[in-house]
Design goal:
alpha+beta, two-stranded antiparallel ribbon
Length: 147
């Protein structure tokens, strides 16, 4: 029994010492990560960048065109990125246009109303393509009217 118990105790003690040393290294060299207090994204100063008025097709789920809608929206971006985002807005508009005709944006019984949540999601996906991941924090659709 002693021959079987001794290797098991050594294995358990080795795992305990290894885990404790890993915890100690993390606490000493990465105190913010150990405490779970990584710098929140809310501490970064943000600004709103307005997009030019965009016209998007209102496509029904079966693929038929029901009309057009004009959208006005603003992007919440870090203040340091605002100039770069403003300079690259044509790329964002292109990416939005390449998505809107494929995604059903029509809502309501007759398809005359735009689905704002879907358009917000389309804009956020296009912004990731145009500016990179994490640049645009939120998209605010400020106006949506039939065109």
């Amino acid at each position: 029994m002693g021959k079987l118990l001794f290797p098991l105790i050594v294995l358990l003690l080795g795992a305990a010492v290894g885990g404790a040393s890993a915890f100690g290294v993390r606490t000493l060299f990465f105190p913010a990560a150990a405490a779970g207090k990584a710098k929140p994204a809310a501490d970064v100063e943000t600004t709103l960048v307005p997009l030019p008025r965009m016209t998007a097709p209102l496509v029904l789920p079966d693929g038929r065109l029901s009309g057009y809608a004009a959208f006005e929206e603003q992007l919440e971006v870090p203040a340091a990125e605002a100039a770069r985002v403003t300079a690259r807005l044509p790329y964002l508009q292109h990416a939005i246009n390449m998505r809107t005709y494929r995604i059903p944006l029509a809502a309501g019984r007759d398809g005359a109303l735009p689905d704002i949540d879907v358009f917000r999601r389309v804009t956020l996906e296009a912004a990731t393509e145009a500016f990179g991941r994490g640049v645009v924090r939120r998209v605010a659709v400020t106006q949506a009217v039939p065109a």
